[in-house]
Amino acid sequence: NFISFDLTNNRCVVIKSCFYMSHNNSTSGWEEKVVKFFKEQLKEKDARTAVPSLNDVPLHYLKPNSLVKFRCFIQDMFDPEFYMGAYETVDPSSKAKMMQCGKYKDVAECSVDFHSSNTVNAERQTFYCVPVPGESPYASESQGRVVPSTSYAPSRQKRSYEDDDDMDTHPQKQREPNSVGPQSPDNHHGNADCKRQETEAPSSQAASASHLDLNFPLPGEKGPSCLVKVYEDWDSFKLNDMLEVYGILSVSPVLSVLADEKETSSSLLDPTDSMETAAEQRVHCPPASLVPRLHLVHSQRLLHNNPLMPLTVMEQNTAFLSSTLSEMAAVRAELLTYFTHVLLGDTLAAEYLILHLISNVYNRRDVLPLGKFTLNLSGCPTVGSYTERLYHIIQQLVPSSFYLGMTLQNLNQMRLVPKKDYVANRLVSGALQVPKNTSLFLDETRLEQGQLDTAGVHNVTALGNLISWQKVDYDFNFHQMEFPCNVNVLVTSEGRSLLPSDCQIHLQPQIPPSQIEEYLSSLHVPSDSSSQVNKFRIFLGVARLLDYSISDEVTKSVEDDFVDMRKDDPQSVSAEDLHRMLVVARLLSLSLGQTTLCRDSWMRAKHIEMQRKTRVEQQKCVNGNEP
Amino acid sequence: SSIGDLMAMPTSPGTDLLSPAAPQDTSLLSSPSFLVSSPLMYGTPSSRMEGTPRSGVRGTPARQRPDLGSVRKAPQVDLQSEQPVSDATVGSEPSGGQRLVIWGTDVNVNICKEKFQRFVQRFVDPTSTEDENAGLDLNEPLYSQKLEEISVVGDPVLNVNCRHLQSFDAELYRQLVSYPQEVIPTFDMAINDLFFDRFPDSFLEYQIQVRPYNALKTRNMRSLNPEDIDQLITISGMVIRTSQLIPEMQEAFFQCSICGASARVEVDRGRIAEPAACRHCNVSHSMALIHNRSLFSDKQMVKIQESPEDMPAGQTPHTIVVYAHNDLVDKVQPGDRINITGIYRAVPMRANPLQSSVKSVYKTHIDVIHFRKTDEKRLHGLDEDAEQKLFTEDRVQSLKELSLKPDVYERLASALAPSIYEHEDIKKGILLQLFGGSRKDFSQTGRGHFRAEVNILLCGDPGTSKSQLLQYVYNLVPRGQYTSGKGSSAVGLTAYVMKDPETRQLVLQTGALVLSDNGICCIDEFDKMSDNTRSVLHEVMEQQTLSIAKAGIICQLNARTAVLAAANPVESQWNPKKTTIENIQLPHTLLSRFDLIFLMLDPQDEAYDRRLAHHLVSLYYHGEEQMEEEFLDMSVLKDYIAYARTYISPRLSEEASQALIEAYVDMRKIGSGRGMVSAYPRQLESLIRLSEAHAKVRFSERVETIDVEEAKRLHREALKQSATDPRTGFVDISILTTGMSATARKRKEEVAQALKKMIQTKARTPAMKYQQLLEELRAQSETAVTKELFDEALRALADEDYLTVTGKTVRLLA
Questions:
Q1: Where is the composition biased (Basic and acidic residues) (chain A) (predicted)?
Q2: How many Cβ atoms from other residues are within 10 Å of residue B59's Cβ?
Q3: Nearest-5° angle of CA B416, CA B309, CA B300?
Q4: What pLDDT score was predicted for residue B786?
């Protein structure tokens, strides 16, 4: 009733006033009302898209104290803070007292009456959030762009509209080279689309923004980071969650002034303040112009960050699901053809690549993660930067990915495992702090002979742990803490990888080695927004989220099969092989849009596994001494 | 005031008037136009004693307590009139029937004092087990005895366990927790009155301070909320940083630059009200701060982080700032696990008069009153209950119920790593390892400690989920370490000395074995470990200590760790025709230190295959709920083990000892029939350990015959797997203890004799070709002679000084 919140016209009326009003109207229960109101509004279809997003719109176009959204990743959790939930101000001239609300705000009016007995103290939690790491350009760009609310001075209005138009037609000017990249694979090597490729270890950290290290997990990332203030139920949030946050933007210059002041004239402060190190100050109170504050009103955990799929759980979107499921087999065939083309005519490898891309840790049985499917693609040609092209194509298809060239320098110098910095009191991120279902592309073809130092050994161990147990042990200096993760790891190598893997497939190019380079230059890269590519993206996203079961009959026949296989030659099939076959069968069924295992899929899984095994055996014979 | 006068006056440097710092400082310290004080501090002014209480007449100075926060006179209020009684300071006598309480609280000073004195004089706790109370008569009033101790030792600190206070007087306890800032000074007064009454002649450096600890329940850092502000709390955590010492001004000394008159101003909540004018000569703005004559106290900032055990999964640990004052400074080091008791504070952000708005957040910290290290005992005790995990009554009850079930042993074993199929005996073995034996001390008789930990080695084909089992155990135990033999060096396992980059001091960094003291060290790929690294395990696995002599640091560290190792056969597949030693190529000296050695092999039998397949398939589609039902929860298992390890230490019963003796004699007998030793004292010790562990599983304080039976069975099973001589099919312990089975030794001797005979029968040539000799022997012998066997035979003959082998030629010596 009291809130004039015109979503359709894309205007977020200043929230502040409504709080004052609501507070004066009904002293209790107003918070719930506000939150409920926002939630209701946001349920409506257009509402989500009507709210401007911090991901797309530059900060200076957004109006302070307005409602914005932010698709983000919880990188660190700060300590809870106490604030004045409600306080009384005294007008210096009239001495009139007035209740003020401190919720959803960072600053209080200066004439606070600290002695008032009406003051209510409350607690809130701060999360340090960054944009989703490793997000592919298509995923970060097409998430419902919104023209920012027009709250600028009239003289500026025109210009800002222009800018907006600009952005709508050519999505994000600074990313333009990226969208060009795919069409011209010849020049993409030194191009900006490899911006996430860590060629020279950590130098990029310093390059971000200014002196301020925004602590992005992956090197070379850009984008706004944000301090999200959470008012309720903060225990339900977990580190590394992907969230869509709706909240009130706070960029009050006071926050920055305080921060600056502390840096420059610390003598102004009493000794208790100076005990907090400058580093800590910088991290916890960064200038609001660089790291805005967002007061959370409503948030939603994201199961995926694929913009082409509905956000909500699959079951609720039966229409979408049934239409996709019916197309699954056809899209799969198309994708198989395409991957065969990319993988130099090797259909079996293409088959495995599909299975790998839709794998997902769907459950954990004590320490054992179920459903992971790390693929080691061995025998990759080293000419024509093949692996980088391959990554580039995968990046086009999955919502988030990261390319890690396993050069000695990278292994020895890069920070993979997040580490707690007690001086600045924050978790310094590492490349393995990524959201779930990120595709991690490890390029082992770039490894050369040399010495790994201590950090390198730790990094390789961390990668091994990630692959084997899907967990990363964060370094808290005095102890380690285990964080489970869910990352699809693809290792490309010449021989067998030095890292463990669930499945190794040796690439058998159908093209003579002399022509590979030529073939690569003519490699078809789909354009960014073709309908085919979008179909692939939806396919990979949906297959990953499907439920799966095995009927009793099929269970029986699988058991029989296993016993039979062991009868013939007990050495040939081990429990581990059965594990893998079950995973392959599961992924194969899902890739065909089947949510239960049928006999055919099982036979097919068995068949491709046999093919793969004979190929690995052959390879052993060729190489002779390979273990 | 009297305090300042007692201080030795520093020789102040001439005139402070010209000191350049002084004017600047005063301007900084002058309070801004309006007084900003926290509404949180509202109604909790301190009741600092003006001067000293009665006993102070003796000249014992009272020491300021910055830990109690602001020093301000607290007016007392008459409850009836609701008006502050003017000038009624805390020390004053209450008038007649008026009920005086400290403003903002319901604390009446005199009643409170009396109550506390009664508590000190009367409280008795006959069941006290705290180490602080060692040597005290538990049937006498506890704190009176402590006062006596103070009079002897002269350390004027009285630590009071709040739990005692609570059981004695719940109301007083409530007041203490709610208004620590008022109640603790009252306690101080009471205790000093009492003390100087009893020991009028004792001399103390300053007056006794009461330090309560163990307030309420030990709270989790996460559960602190705004309601706890200004209350007495106890939380646990780990120290992560300590600051330099900070001198904090308690009392400022001002001197008039015109007439030289001085004034003292007490610091109130970090602020000093600078006298605007000199009282003596009435010149305004003439007062200058004299640093040398001001009063300072020590202060240190300590950062505490939640201990990893208290944290919910998927979140980062919280930290909190703690201020330590006076003698508590430098009491703790980074890395210490501590319980701290203190007052929780919140201070609003300082407002800047130039700005129109302020940040609406508070800074929170704890003013510490008492530190208690929780891991102190670990350094010099042999008690394993260092980490006293607190179990709720319900939990203990449910654990005890579980322990009474007849099949508890099987249940727990199957709850262990449910995703790994079968291998029942191995799981049982690991279960017993998790419980461990009882610790025994024979240092009186010169043998030192007996190892209580059970060591287990798993060997077998690759891909038989050994690593998974290790990972599971590592995740299950609180102090587990996981290393891989491939990646760890000797120093990584033991300890190394490194130079701290900040302090340039040498520091001892401990490795996996020391870190898993009282836990389990899981070592994967044991066979890939270098010999050098493996050699450090000899000491750890039997003596349970680790000696270090590096960079001038010579020490012996405790490493009472159980070792769970996994090894792969040297040939990628286990060769059933070879002995364990030959298969994994580990030195027998090390192998004999393992209590149980299990083989994890593919059984290769149809029924097993079927069950395995069924198990695996079900793993891939059963819902999570279904899994929960089938097995015990991992957390229950964790608690069960922790409880048993902490509270149960079984001893051998008469029958059990008898059964053990018989078992050992039987084992010896088997061998003696064939002329070999089939059991060593080490095996007996293993049996004892295993029986004790099994008794622990049952929560039994006595080891019964059934425990011994199970230990025997398990030990036999393990031996059957690992110590069977593949040539004869008999179990032969010497395979593990000497690295060679008796039959193999016999065979070696036979070959050597045959070789000797052959050489003797040949024409006497002083030198022979190696290859030729081997072929001749092969032609002559009825059984196959391998090259290794031939080499060994040659070596045996060389030992007899009969021949020498140089390169490819064999020379006779005789």
A1: 186-199
A2: 10
A3: 160
A4: 73
The radius of gyration computed from the CA coordinates of chain B, to the nearest angstrom, equals 37
* Tens-place pLDDT, residues B761-797: 776 667 777 777 778 777 777 766 777 777 777 777 7
Cβ–Cβ gap A566/B38 under 8 Å: no
Q: Using a CB-CB distance cutoff of 8 angstroms, which residues of chain A are in contact with residue B226?
A: 82, 121-123
Closest chain B CA to residue A460: B487
Question: Distance, in angstroms, between B315 CA and closest chain A CA?
Answer: 5
Contact check, Cβ <8 Å, A238/B314? yes
- Which one of A104, A106, A114 would you mutate to disrupt binding with B, by most B Cβ within 10 Å of its Cβ? A114
Using only C-alpha atoms, chain A has a radius of gyration, in whole angstroms, of 27
| pLDDT of amino acid B17 | 36
C-alpha angle A35/A36/A40, rounded to 5°? 120
Neighbour count for residue B213 (Cβ, 10 Å) = 21
Give the residue from B528, B620, B630 with the most A CB atoms within 10 Å of its CB, the best one to mutate.
Answer: B620
Higher-pLDDT residue of A510 and A108 is A510
The helix or strand, by DSSP H or E, that contains position B695, with its residue range, turns out to be helix B681-697
Least confident of A364-378, A481-495, B184-198, B472-486: B472-486
Label residue B284 exposed, middle or buried (CB < 10 Å: 0-12, 13-18, 19+). Answer: exposed
Which residues between 309 and 328 in chain B have a beta carbon less than 8 angstroms from any beta carbon of chain A? 311-321, 323
CA distance A65 to chain B (A): 15
Q: Are strands A375-378 and A487-492 parallel, antiparallel or unpaired?
A: parallel
- Whole-model pTM above 0.80? no
pLDDT band at A94 (very low <50, low <70, confident <90, very high): confident
Given this model, what pLDDT does residue B713 score? Answer: 84
Is A211 an interface residue toward B (CB < 8 Å)? no
Q: Which stretch, A95-104, A320-329, B484-493, B601-610, has highest mean pLDDT? A: A320-329
Of residues B779 and B374, more confidently modeled: B779
How large is the average pLDDT for residues A568-577?
A: 73
Find out whether A370 and A364 touch, Cβ atoms under 8 Å: yes
Residues A522-547 pLDDT 10s: 777 776 667 888 888 888 888 888 88
| Tokens standing for residue A470 | 């899907």
| pLDDT tens digits for range B462-472 | 767 777 788 88
| DSSP SS3 for B55 | helix
Comparing CB atoms, the residue among A269, A571, A578 nearest residue B613 is A578
Q: Tell me, what DSSP letter sits at residue B417? A: S
What is the mean pLDDT of the segment spanning A67-89?
Answer: 84
Instruction: Select from A84, A367, A476 the Cβ nearest to the Cβ of B360.
Output: A84
Q: Which residue of B has its CA nearest to A86?
A: B360
Contacts of B623-632 with C-beta under 8 Å, sequence gap 24+, read: B624/A363, B627/A365, B627/B418, B630/B418, B631/B414, B631/B415, B631/B418, B632/B411, B632/B412, B632/B415
Structure tokens at B678: 């089939």
Cα Dmax for chain A: 97
Residue B61 has pLDDT above 50, yes or no: yes
For B420-449, b where at least 16 C-beta lie within 10 A, e where not — what string?
bbebebbbbbbbbbbbbbbbbeeeeeeeeb
CB B115 within 8 A of CB B169: yes
Contact B355 A257 (CB under 8 A): yes
Helix (H) or strand (E) holding B536: helix B531-543
Q: Where are the beta strands (DSSP E) in B146-282?
A: 157-161, 209-213, 232-256, 262-266
HSE at residue B522, side-chain half, CA atoms within 13 A, is: 20
**pLDDT value of position B551:** 67
Q: Which amino acid is at A101?
A: C
Within 452-471 of A, beta carbons closer than 8 Å to B belong to 457, 461, 468-469
